[in-house]
Amino acid sequence: MNLNLDVDLARRMTEPGDVDAALESAKAEYRRLAALGPDDGDWPVTGWFHCAEAACQLDLIKEKAAEIRQNAEVFVLVGVGGSNQAARAMIEAIQKPGGPRIVYAGNTLSACEVARVLQAIEGKSVYIDVIAKNFETLEPGSHYRVLRAAMEKRYSKEEMAKRVILTGTVGSRLEEIAKENGCTFLHFPLRVGGRYSAFTPVALLPLAVAGLDVDAYLEGGRAMEQLLAKTEGGIAAEYAAVRHALWLRGFRVEMLTAFEPRLFWAEQWWKQLFGESEGKDKKGMLPASMINSEDLHSMGQYMQDGLRILTETFLSVDDPGASVVIQPDPDFKDGFDYLDGMDFANINRAAEKATLHAHAAGGVPCVVLRLPRIDERTFGLVYYFFMVACALSGRLLGVNPFDQEGVEEYKRSMFAALGKGGVKGR
């Protein structure tokens, strides 16, 4: 099964002809992306477009992951933003049993959080995977230093070489460090930006260490790639077109909503993808997220009655993944007898349906993306769908969806404040 996109409740709130015009432009942009070659301007940043090209070193990844699962008690994933979001979203959502505890580092400058990471590895058998495309980002670089210092107290140089995996671009300082220390080096493809790295070794090694089925995951990505190729962008172009038509109507925030808490980190991945890709030239919808039903008791109020600048995209999951039936308890008199015999899966589905209709009736343009279930193949479908849709949506806005000059600006200011040589503040 593939994904199903329903944009009817959103389309009715656009101007006549806007969606159709945007869809034709999105399809044209898809054809351009699909035809890119080495002489084209975007070719250096679109290595993610073909899953088979992005998913390199798969045999080495599987071999190293098997070693880590056998020997490690703790596996530390050191990366920030696009260097860990895709893997973390899947690992936290699917949660396969067995293997080492996975700890996330390199994503904060909080002394308290760094201390917690060091505490988590104390006295444990540890492997770390340091992911940094050019090894210039402060968070993973600084965390690698303190983790290295902690591990060197316990492991020989030879053992360190086995327990440290470095993932970066060919020719980077990280590759040099790998060669100098005999560490396994995995490729962060030069033609792939961090937020588009979901099908590269950046994500594949952590997924394999967590015991997830990387072959099923890649099959999902390839299936969506093939589907979109047959339909000139298909549902990805349609989603991008509807977003653009709503942007033209003055909608400025997109809320990604799920009634499945397992999708919390997937929403975080989505926010980075769209925020970093489209937030340029004073353009782009602000990507926000809700996990319901909890957030219905806070943000639900704003969605229903707040300023009408918000659109909403529902991630709806067909297979609930579990069944819990509420048993009758007539003697307790708690007032919830109307739930007797109901499954929480059906209760949750009813809440989702009611919220969709209430928000749409209240003037919120609503899109529904239906997922068959939460598993590796579905994540492959979802990631590829959103990456293509984001690229097309950015092009419709007239921005470059593959750069991130705003991020680079804050980095320059931070490096200057910290006294990094050769960097001047602005």
Structure, explained:
The chain has 17 helices and 10 strands. The strands form 2 sheets. It has a 5-stranded mixed β-sheet with strand order 1-10-9-7-8, sandwiched between helices. A 5-stranded parallel β-sheet has the order 3-2-4-5-6, sandwiched between helices. By secondary structure, the protein is α/β, with parallel strands linked by helices. The model has no long low-confidence stretch (mean pLDDT 95). Strand 2 (74-78), helix 5 (85-94) and strand 3 (101-105) form a beta-alpha-beta unit. It starts with a strand and ends in an 8-residue tail after the last helix. Helix 5 (85-94) packs parallel to helix 10 and helix 13 packs parallel to helix 16.
Write the layout of secondary structure elements.
Layout: E1 4-6, H1 8-11, H2 18-34, H3 51-54, H4 58-71, E2 74-78, H5 85-94, E3 101-105, H6 111-121, E4 126-131, H7 138-152, H8 157-163, E5 164-168, H9 173-181, E6 184-187, H10 201-209, H11 214-230, H12 234-248, E7 253-258, H13 264-278, E8 286-291, H14 299-305, E9 310-317, H15 344-361, E10 366-371, H16 376-397, H17 405-418
Parallel strand pairs: 2-3, 2-4, 4-5, 5-6, 7-8, 7-9, 9-10
Antiparallel strand pairs: 1-10
Helix pairs in contact: 2-12, 2-16, 4-10, 5-10, 5-13, 11-16, 12-16, 13-16
